[in-house]
Amino acid sequence: MSQQLSRTSGYHRTMAHDVQLDAVDHAVLAALAGDGRMSMNELATQVGVSRATAYSRVERLRREQVITGFTATIDPARAGFGVTALILLNVRQADWQAARDLLLAVPGVVYLAMTSGAFDMVMLVRAADVHHLRDVVLGELHDVPQVRSTQTVFVLEEHGPLPLPRTQER
After folding, report:
1. Among the four residues 3, 45, 78, 127, which has the most C-beta atoms within 10 Å?
2. How far apart are CA 137 and CA 88, in angstroms?
3. Which spans in 35-143 are helix H?
């Protein structure tokens, strides 16, 4: 979440929709990021507020789309995705939106970001094995007409939750 550097009245302002978040909101978000299935009673206890306050904060954060959903954290290797790679892409500049839409539909794509610097985009791909990753890179990504070049970087170790691919085709 991008935030302005200035703070007013103990609130952080987000640039996207000018949502004001205070310390309790941040505590709620941190607690739910650790365990999105915790009960409102657990959340209230952890944050140090009443159950009613915890409930109203979560509802407001959902209404203002600060919380956009709840997901499970899954071990990719145990779920059949033993290979993870970052793929750095260069695309035709005039066609970046079309490229984005096509790339998001590629099987195994978990994350896609527009970047500055030497590459236009970076994506995180999960695959069953190296052969499956080869098929994704050479058979799927290079079939996208807007893709000019790719560079694949294998992930050797991960820390922090990232979801599995939306499609689990292998």
Report:
1. 127
2. 11
3. 40-47, 51-63, 96-104, 130-134
91 and 132 co-located in one domain = yes
Q: What's the CATH code of the domain at 8?
A: 1.10.10.10
Q: Is residue 70 part of a domain?
A: no
CA 35, 41, 42, 48 torsion: positive or negative? positive
State the pLDDT at residue 88: 98
Domain identity same for 41 and 100: no
Single pTM value for the model:
0.70
Number of domains in the chain: 2
Q: Write the pLDDT tens digit of every residue in 109-144.
A: 999 999 999 999 999 999 999 999 999 999 999 999
Q: Residue 149, SS3?
A: strand
Structural domain that includes position 55: 3-63
